[in-house]
Automatic annotation (TrEMBL):
Gene Ontology BP annotations: amino acid biosynthetic process; aromatic amino acid family biosynthetic process; chorismate biosynthetic process
Residue ranges of every copy of the Enolpyruvate transferase domain listed in the record: 15-436
Gene3D superfamilies: Enolpyruvate transferase domain
Reactions catalysed, as given in the entry: 3-phosphoshikimate + phosphoenolpyruvate = 5-O-(1-carboxyvinyl)-3-phosphoshikimate + phosphate
UniProt name for this protein: 3-phosphoshikimate 1-carboxyvinyltransferase
Species annotation: Palleronia pontilimi
PROSITE patterns: EPSP_SYNTHASE_1, EPSP_SYNTHASE_2
Gene that specifies this protein: aroA
Listed GO MF terms: 3-phosphoshikimate 1-carboxyvinyltransferase activity
Length: 450
C-alpha cells in the first residue's frame, strides 16, 4: 500500500536520560521470508513475533493475492496456509509493495518461474529504485519483464513457462538479488547456483533449509557459492521471529549519545551477517554489552545493554563490513556526529539506491545541524562534534525513508536545539511503535502540529 495523507512533521529535543527496557518489533527480513516461504509450503506455517510494519503487511497481502490463506489471529500470531512450490495463482490485481524493496524483489523472484503475468507497483520511493538487478537474473530462468525506463516499477513480470535452472554471480552485494534468484530456483528443475563475492544476510539460506529445501553454501575462489535443488516440497514451519537488530539500533544509539542513559534491548537477533553496527560501535568506544547470549529459532540472539558513552571516537569502518550493517549507516552517522574525530565510511555505494539516497539525505540534514560531512559516489565521512556538541535546530527531509526519519529524531535527542523531520509517516514501514517506545524510555518526541 502506498503512503497516503498529508505529511506528519515530527520533532525531538534534549530531555532527561533514556532509561528502561525497549522491546523492539520482529525482524523485517525474517518476517517477509516467513510469509513468502509459508505461502510456498504445503500446509500451515505458524508465525509469532511477525513485524506488523507496513512493508510486511504489504507482503502478507501479496501472498493472499497469489492464493495463500494468510490469517492474523487474536493475540498477534499469524498463520499462512501455503499453496506449495509452483502453486501460485495469477492475481487479478496489481501487487502493490508500497515502500518495500525486499517485498517486491523477493516476490518477483518467487513468481518468475510460474506460467503467469504479475504487475507490480509501489510508492514514489520504490518506483524510483532499480529493478534490473533482479529482472536480469530472472530473465535467465525464462521470465520477461516490461517496466518503465531503467527497469523501474510499475512493471509486469511474465513468468517462465518452462523454467530452467540458473547459475548467477551477483554483480552487487544484495541479499534481495540473491534471495530473488533462490526463490525463482525453487520452481525450476535441477540446481540453481548463486555466487556472491561479499556475504550478505543469509536468512533465505537458513530458512530454506529450515523449510526442508536442499541448499548448501561453500567458499570458492569466486566467493560464497549457494546451491539450491529445485522443486522440493517445502514443509510448513513454526517460526518465532527474533527482534530486529536494525530497529534495535535506534534505542541503542540513542542511549549511547544521550547523557546519563542506560537502556536494555532484549532478544535482539545477532546473526553475524547483520551485526556489523554493534562491532563498529564497540570499536568506537561504546559502552555496549551483550548479555544472555542464546539461540532462538535458529538465529543467535542476546540482550543488548547500552549506556551513555561520552568517550566515543571516530573510526574507519572496514569496507568489508558494509553488507552486515548496510541499513545502519544513517544512524551510525548520527553517533559519529556526537563522537570525537572523523568516522570514515567507505564501500557504501548501495546506500544511494535505498528508499532514498541515504548519503545525500543524511549529509544534507547533518550539515544543516552544523556537522561537517564529505561524500563521494561510494563513501562518506563525518567529522564529530563531540558529546552534546551538535547544534541541531534544523529540519531533515525524510524523502519517504523510515531510517532517515528515525535517525533525525535520535539526533534531536542529543542536540543543543530540537531537530525536526518533515514527515514521520515512513517510520511505520519498519518500526510502527517507535514514537511510543522512545517516549517510554524518556525521550521527547512530538508531532509538530500537535
Ligand atoms: O534481503 C533483505 O531482507 C534486505 C536486504 C538489504 O537490501 P539489499 O539486498 O538491496 O542490500 C537491506 O537493505 C534490506 O533492508 C533488507
Ligand atoms: C533498505 C531497506 O528496506 P527495503 O530495501 O526492503 O525497502 C531498509 O529497511 O532499510
Amino acid at each position: 500500500m502506498s503512503a497516503h495523507g498529508d505529511p506528519i512533521p515530527m520533532q525531538s529535543r534534549r530531555a532527561g536520560p533514556l532509561t528502561g527496557t525497549a522491546e523492539v518489533p520482529g525482524d523485517k527480513s525474517i518476517s517477509h521470508r516467513s510469509l513468502i516461504l509459508g505461502a510456498m509450503a504445503v500446509g500451515e506455517t505458524r508465525i509469532t513475533g511477525l513485524l506488523e510494519g507496513q512493508d510486511v503487511l504489504d507482503t502478507a497481502k501479496a501472498m493472499a493475492a497469489l492464493g495463500a490463506d494468510v490469517v492474523r489471529h487474536e493475540g498477534g500470531a499469524w498463520s499462512v496456509h501455503g499453496v506449495g512450490v509452483g502453486g501460485f495463482h495469477e492475481p487479478d490485481q496489481v501487487i502493490d509493495c508500497g515502500n518495500s524493496g525486499t517485498g517486491v524483489r523477493l516476490i518477483m523472484g518467487a513468481v518468475a518461474t510460474h506460467d503467469m503475468a504479475v504487475t507490480f507497483t509501489g510508492d514514489a520511493s520504490l518506483n524510483g529504485r532499480p529493478m534490473g538487478r533482479v529482472t536480469d537474473p530472472l530473465a535467465l530462468f525464462g521470465a520477461r519483464a516490461v517496466g518503465r525506463a531503467g527497469g523501474r516499477l510499475p512493471l509486469t513480470l511474465v513468468g517462465a513457462k518452462d523454467p530452467v535452472p540458473v547459475r548467477y554471480a551477483t554483480p552487487v552485494p544484495s541479499a534481495q538479488v540473491k534471495s530473488a534468484v533462490l526463490l525463482a530456483g525453487l520452481n525450476a528443475p535441477g540446481q540453481t547456483v548463486v555466487i556472491e563475492r561479499e556475504a550478505t544476510r543469509d536468512h533465505s539460506e537458513r530458512m530454506l533449509a529450515g523449510f526442508g529445501a536442499e541448499i548448501a553454501t561453500r567458499e570458492t575462489d569466486e566467493g560464497h557459492e549457494i546451491t539450491l535443488t529445485g522443486q522440493p516440497e517445502l514443509r510448513p514451519q513454526s517460526i518465532a521471529v527474533p527482534k530486529d537488530p536494525s530497529s534495535a539500533a535506534f534505542p541503542v544509539c540513542a542511549a549511547l549519545i544521550v547523557e546519563g542513559s542506560d537502556v536494555l534491548v532484549p532478544g535482539i537477533g545477532l546473526n553475524p551477517t547483520r551485526a556489523g553496527l554493534f562491532d563498529t560501535l564497540v570499536e568506537m568506544g561504546a559502552d555496549l554489552t551483550f548479555e544472555n547470549r542464546r539461540d532462538e529459532g535458529g538465529e543467535p540472539v542476546a540482550d543488548l545493554r547500552a549506556r551513555f558513552s561520552p568517550a566515543m571516537k571516530g573510526i574507519r569502518v572496514p569496507r568489508e563490513r558494509a553488507a552486515s550493517m548496510i541499513d545502519e549507516y544513517p544512524i551510525l552517522s548520527v553517533v559519529a556526529a556526537c563522537a570525537e574525530g572523523v568516522t570514515d565510511m567507505p564501500g557504501v555505494a548501495e546506500l544511494r539506491v535505498k528508499e532514498s539516497d541515504r548519503i545525500d539525505a543524511m549529509a544534507e540534514g547533518l550539515r544543516a545541524c552544523g556537522v561537517t560531512v564529505e561524500d563521494g559516489p561510494d563513501w562518506w565521512r563525518v567529522t564529530g562534534r563531540g558529546p552534546g556538541g551538535v547544534a541541531g535546530g534544523a529540519t531533515f527531509a525524510a524523502r519517504l525513508d523510515h531510517r532517515i526519519a528515525m535517525s533525525a529524531l535520535i539526533l534531536g535527542m542529543a542536540s543543543e536545539k530540537p531537530v525536526t523531520v518533515d514527515d514521520g509517516q515512513p517510520i511505520a514501514t519498519s518500526f510502527p511503535i517507535f514514537e511510543t517506545l522512545m517516549g517510554d524510555l524518556g525521550a521527547e518526541v512530538t508531532r509538530k502540529d500537535a
